[in-house]
Structure formats: C-alpha cells, structure tokens
C-alpha cells in the first residue's frame, strides 16, 4: 500500500505512474484458444465433448440440462438465499426497465421521413463461470437486462467440473427465467455459442465473465458475434472526509480487495490522521477476515491512500483514474458527483457501501475496469438492443435534397452513387 | 453473379453457403503493426516522424496543420461542394440531435435514490484516410455525432502522402468545426492517438475508417482506448417488385458495387422477368461507368439475385443476411420494414436510393457490415457518450435492503462485502 500526498513535490510524477500501472499479468493463451475454436467449428459436439471431458473431468450424456435436473438442483438453494435473489432481481429489473429507449420518427420540412427504431438482439448467450466460486448475482446482472431488452432466446452455459454445480446458480437462472442451459465452459463453450454445434444453436452476442481462456475466446469470436467488454480486476475509489467511521471505510476498501489479488482499493481523504486510522482499521479487520490472503495481497500490492488538501482536489485525480466504483462518503455527495466524468458507478453518502450495488441496489454491477470508464459504460439494456435507422423520400423530397448528394458523390469519384440519384430526378 | 430461387430444391443449402461466404481475404499485418505501436510508445514523435517519412514520403515541420494552411486549402474546395457539405452537415446534425439520451433519476419506495447520467467522452480522435480517395462525407458522419454528444476535444488525423491533401477534406473539417488536425496516418497515427506523443495528447476513443494497418492498429489499442467497429466491405440488399424501373434498381446495385471489389449487391424480387431486366440493365450501365472495373468485379464475384415466390418470403432471408443497407422498393415499404430485425439502415420506397443516405439523408452512413447488423448498430451519438449509474441510501433505506445483500455476499463467499453492509446496520 502506498501513500501519496498532493503536497509532495513529486506527486504528479508518482500519480502518473500509479495511473499507468498495469495490475494484471496477461498470459498468452491465444494459440491454445485458436486451436480449440477451430476444432469446435469443424467437429462441433464431438470436440466440445472431448474438451469437457479433458478440462472439466465430466462426461455428460447431453450438454443441455433437463428441466428436472434444474428444478432439483435449484430446490437445494437455501430459502433465504432464494428470497434475496428475488429481492435483487426485482430491484435490478425495475432499474433496467427505465433504460428502455424511445424510437425516433419524424417528417422534416422538405418531406423526408426519417427514423430510428430499437430492436432487441435475436439471441444472446451468457457465460457463467463454474465451480463453487461462481457468482449467481452476476447471472442476474447479465440475464435481466437481456430479458428486459426483449431478447427472445437467452442461452446460458456453465461448466460443471466433475459434474458439480452450485445450486444457487440454477436458482438464479430460475429467478431470471432462463431454461436453455448447457453444462459446458471454457473456450469450447464460447466457440459453441458463436458457431453452433449439432445440439447448440448459435447466438448473436456472448456476455459474461470468465477466466483467461474465456476472455481470449470472446476476443477471437468477436465479429462473428458481439461480445461485452473484457473485464479486468475490480477497483474501488473511496473519497472520505474525517467525519466517517474509519472501520466502515476499512470494510469498504477490503470488499474490493477480497475479490482478487489484482483488485485495487484507493482512499482519497483530506485528513492524514483519518487516513492513518483507516489504515490501522484495515489491519485489524484483516486479522479475522476469511478472505484475508487475497485481500491483504491486493491491499499491500495495489492499495493506495491519497491525501489531498481539500476534497475538491480529488475530482481531477478521480477522473484520470476512471475507477470502476466510486464511493463519496461525505455529507453532500451530489456536489462532488456532478463533477465526476469518468467512473463506472457511484455510491453516494455514508450509508451506501459499494456491496449494496453488487447485489440489490438496482444498477448493474458489470462495470468498466482498468481505466476504461473514460470511454465505456456498465452493462445495460443498451447492450442487448440495436438501432436500425431509416429514410423515406417521395418524389418531391428527393428533388429537394438530391442535387447535394449528386455533387458530393461526384466530388468523391463515385459515379454510380450520383447516377442512382440523377436517374430518379431526370425521369420524373 | 449468382441467381437463387426459393423454389429450387437445394435453395436452403445454397442460401446458407451464401450467408456464410466470407468476402474479404484478411492479410495478417499484426506483427508489423505491433512493432510500430511499440516503437511509437517508446520513441513517440521521433518514431511517428520516421514512419511518416517512410510510408507517406512526407517530412512535415510539425504534425499539426496550421490554421492558415487549413484555411488556404479549404478555400480551394469548389463552392458547390462546400454548399453540399453544409446541406449534409445540417441534415446529419438535425437527425443526430434527436439521439441525445435522457438521464434517469428517481427515489424508490424504500427511499433509495437511483440514477443514470449520460456523460460525453472527454476526447475523441477521428482517423480520416488520405490521398484523393478520402471521403469527406465520412468525416462529417464521424465528427458531427461526437460534436453533438458534447465531446470537448475532437482531434483528426489525416495522412498527406507526398504532402498532398484533398481540399474537400479540410473544407469538411471546417464545416464540422474541427481545428486540431495532424497530418499523419497508418498504424503510427493510431498509436499516437492512443498513447500520446510529445506533440499529440492522447484521446479516449478512436473512430473512423482505414486500411488493413489502421484496422489492425485499432484492434491492438482497444482497451487502452475505445474504438468503433471495424468496417468490412459495403453491402446493399434491394427488395423490389416488378413495378420498378429496372434501370433505377441497376444503378442502386452498382452504387454499392463501385465501392470495392469485395462489396456485395443483392436483389430480391418476386419476378423472374424483372430480375432479368435488371441484370441486363446492370450490364448496360456498366459499359460507360467510370468505376466499371471495380463495380463489375464486385457484381460478378459477389452479386446475387434471389427470386422469391412473394416478397414476404424475403424477410427471413433478409434477417439472416443482416445487410448493411436495405432498399424496399415497393408501394407500402413500411409493412416490410416493420418485420426487419437485422439491418444497418433502411431506404424506403421507390424514390430513396441508398446514396441519399450516404450523403444528405441525415442518419449515419457508418453502418455494421459482414452480417454484424445481427448485434451491432450504425454510428451515433451513443458512441460518444457513456453512462455513469449511481445509488444513494440513507440509514433507513440501507436497513430495508441491506439484509438481502448480506445474505447474497455470504452465499458467494465474500465476507468483507457482507461486513461492509453489516457494520452500518449494526452501529446505527
């Protein structure tokens, strides 16, 4: 964990280095993934079967999970967890329903009819990581926006190493209304979704988190299908004044740190003594934290405390860091929030720990990482719809705007473009 | 050019092969591009200078074009072309202004404040291809949505082989209000925009068309910056009944074919005799077309005529082909248009040749190619804004939804997530 002060002489150099730091070592798995995809394209189900046996030590009769199996497993989800999933789903659905965009349609002064219609993607595949570490909350965050967008066919793949599955994942699928589920994972699942096999019809877009092989497979099939962004390790930036309870802030910092040794937790505060209290509290909480190993590695390697002269100073720093999550633990958070231009999602005030947003807040928890909030946004209904624009001229409207088109087409050396307009102006 | 009939026994096999046909040979330039990007990251301006000298045979004093130079060059644009650019810009701006999205903000029943705000990307770089073949209309289509989105800094790069530039490009930049222009191109321009050099500040997103090196460079810098989609060769699908003038339809087909030998023009009609008339007309128009060489290669290699029993039959075929451009040359185009789910942009009725949309229609002409209209959309204001979501709980609101979050966090094995909520519920 490093401490930076804006009053230090070399602050700006140190801060630049901190901004540019890459936290994730990228392993090159592109060759392996390329081979798997090529094989699945040719041998389809047979190839998927082979990789599933080899990598997951699992030999299912059929990739598709039966209704009975899904229901039996989902029934093993504890009742309080099922209820919590339902609370989460309802709140996520309500927030995302407000994102449904409006079509555009108008006739302009010269009689041209113009418009833009939003259409749901026909089919979407959701990748869900396997094993006990799978996150049912992510399934809801990926599936519900697609559902609300109106996607007709939503497919899910989830690997079942040694035939095991987390019942909570299937309970979450039930809550989200997903019934077409295949027990495959890795690059072979991504390839099957993109190109289709005898038993799995292809999809138009693939979303959802995965390991390095899944991420690389998504990169390689992009173009054939759409993909969501490739997520990096999680980040939180907490802006806090000295009136906060240092323990609360310590828990918030560790809630990111426990995700991954590459995760990053940053505190910006205007009080050095408060910072020291938080640092001490982090140490104390860590002592008994079951995820201590991961959390302390993340905090030691990537954690940072930035001391500013006043909290206004945090805004330009924050916009450069473009963090995935921002907590504004101050009395009037909206004043700072209004100035924030680069962040995934914001958590305002002293009673909004980021973890609320991970589960039951309503906004999506799939958010841009690795400074990509400069140009990217969290997952939303917009990721599952597309726009089709249109134009309609009648004879008179074409006469009004046709000459300008002809002039530009000729200037660009495209005579058939010009001709297709000119012939309609001439003969009528 | 091939002719397919839905009544043929092997139609569906042939049609599938046609859908899956890949029209573009991909040259692997990834190694060269990787070297150029790595070099520009280290040696910055010096590297860009060297590549510009080597590839463009041009040694400018400074990469940034002076106000005087831009004004002098732009003044050489013919007056009628300048006026046409202004007509185009005004119509494009009007259509794109209607895309400006609405923020979301509400307080729900348990007192949680939620919202989503749209924010313009801070800086955008537009790549404009060089030489005489550059398309000033594309500059407008890329720059105006960024401008309307509220992007504060819009930068443009355009290579100047042997010091030459198309005055119309600089006139278009003037119309679009772009003043920060650098005379560089290729992978070195993309690298400079993504990473910055001594004389060029980096941007957050890079858009605009380019050759194979530019496309590959955009792929490689993706993640560091945002990029638009990588465009493939252009496509048109014309649905036409026998009441059309075959000459008009022939011109429309050739207006795509003249773009590129890999471009594709498809006619779907319910009349075989009309199809034959169009095919004959294409041959006739080609005889005197200055772009004959390109257009006839495209038509012969990739052109297709599909004869359907009735025009309703064209809809599922069209949705599978997901063409960049669709013309519906029938009396009641809206009836067909309502059923279209996969297309970039639609041109309705007999008096709306696609070329109108290339220049002065209003909707964007940067559109999804290579069947990607299944999941992707044309360029728009949405490509230059991002969403930041937010959440605010007070004490009471946190008490309402906190337990569900704790339950899910514990079920996912994330105790610090649970703890960050629990400590706030406990102490208050």
From TrEMBL, chains A, B:
Cofactor binding description: Binds 1 zinc ion per subunit.
Stated family: Belongs to the histidinol dehydrogenase family.
Alphabetized InterPro entries for the sequence: Ald_DH/histidinol_DH, Histidinol_DH_CS, Histidinol_DH_monofunct, Hstdl_DH
Keywords: Amino-acid biosynthesis, Histidine biosynthesis, Metal-binding, NAD, Oxidoreductase, Zinc
Highest classification ranks of the organism: Bacteria, Bacillati, Cyanobacteriota, Cyanophyceae, Nostocales
List of residues binding substrate: 234, 256, 259, 325, 358, 412, 417
Catalytic activity: L-histidinol + 2 NAD(+) + H2O = L-histidine + 2 NADH + 3 H(+)
Binding site for NAD(+): 127, 188, 211
Record's protein name: Histidinol dehydrogenase
Pfam families in the cross-refs: Histidinol_dh
Biological pathway: Amino-acid biosynthesis; L-histidine biosynthesis; L-histidine from 5-phospho-alpha-D-ribose 1-diphosphate: step 9/9
Positions of Zn(2+) binding: 256, 259, 358, 417
UniProt entry tagged with the keyword Ligase: no
EC number: 1.1.1.23
A GO-annotated cellular component: cytosol
Molecular function per GO: histidinol dehydrogenase activity; NAD binding; zinc ion binding
Organism (species): Chlorogloeopsis fritschii PCC 6912
Functional summary from the UniProt entry: Catalyzes the sequential NAD-dependent oxidations of L-histidinol to L-histidinaldehyde and then to L-histidine.
GO biological process, one term: L-histidine biosynthetic process
Known cofactor(s): Zn(2+)
Annotated catalytic residues: 324 (proton acceptor), 325 (proton acceptor)
Major enzyme class: oxidoreductase
């Amino acid at each position: 964990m490093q401490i930076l002060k804006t009053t230090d002489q070399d602050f700006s150099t140190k801060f630049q280095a901190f901004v540019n730091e890459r936290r994730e070592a990228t392993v090159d798995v592109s060759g392996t993934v390329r081979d798997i995809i090529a094989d699945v394209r040719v041998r389809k189900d047979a190839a998927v079967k082979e990789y599933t046996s080899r990598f997951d030590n699992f030999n299912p009769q059929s990739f598709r999970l039966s209704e009975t199996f899904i229901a039996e497993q989902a029934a093993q989800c504890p009742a309080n967890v099922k209820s919590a999933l339902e609370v989460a789903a309802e709140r996520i659905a309500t927030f995302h329903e407000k994102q449904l965009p409006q079509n555009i349609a108008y006739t302009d002064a010269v009689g041209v009819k113009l418009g833009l219609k939003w259409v749901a993607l026909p089919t979407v595949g959701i990748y869900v990581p396997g094993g006990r570490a799978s996150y049912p909350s992510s399934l809801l965050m990926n599936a519900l926006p697609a559902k609300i967008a109106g996607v007709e066919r939503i497919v899910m793949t989830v690997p079942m190493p040694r035939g095991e599955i987390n019942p909570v994942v299937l309970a979450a699928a039930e809550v989200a209304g997903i019934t077409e589920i295949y027990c495959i994972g890795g690059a072979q699942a991504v390839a099957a979704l993109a190109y289709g096999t005898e038993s799995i019809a292809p999809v138009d877009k693939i979303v959802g988190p995965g390991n390095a092989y899944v991420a690389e497979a998504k990169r390689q099939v992009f173009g054939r299908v759409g993909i969501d962004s490739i997520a990096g390790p999680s980040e939180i930036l907490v802006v806090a004044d000295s009136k906060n309870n240092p323990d609360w802030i310590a828990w918030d910092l560790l809630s990111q740190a426990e995700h991954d040794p590459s995760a990053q937790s940053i505190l910006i505060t205007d009080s050095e003594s408060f910072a020291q209290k938080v640092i001490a509290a982090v140490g104390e909480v860590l002592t008994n934290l079951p995820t201590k190993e991961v959390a302390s590695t993340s905090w030691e390697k990537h954690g940072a405390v930035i001391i500013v002269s006043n909290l206004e100073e945090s805004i330009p720093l924050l916009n450069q860091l473009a963090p995935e999550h921002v907590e504004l633990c101050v009395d009037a958070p909206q004043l700072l929030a209004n100035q924030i231009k680069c962040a995934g999602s914001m958590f305002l005030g002293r009673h909004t720990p980021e973890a609320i947003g991970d589960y039951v807040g309503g906004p999506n928890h799939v958010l841009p990482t690795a400074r990509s909030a400069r140009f990217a946004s969290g997952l939303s209904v917009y990721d599952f719809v597309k726009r089709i624009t249109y134009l309609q001229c009648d004879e008179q409207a074409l006469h009004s705007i046709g000459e300008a088109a002809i002039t530009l087409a000729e200037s660009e050396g495209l005579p058939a473009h010009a001709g297709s307009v000119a012939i309609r102006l001439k003969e009528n």
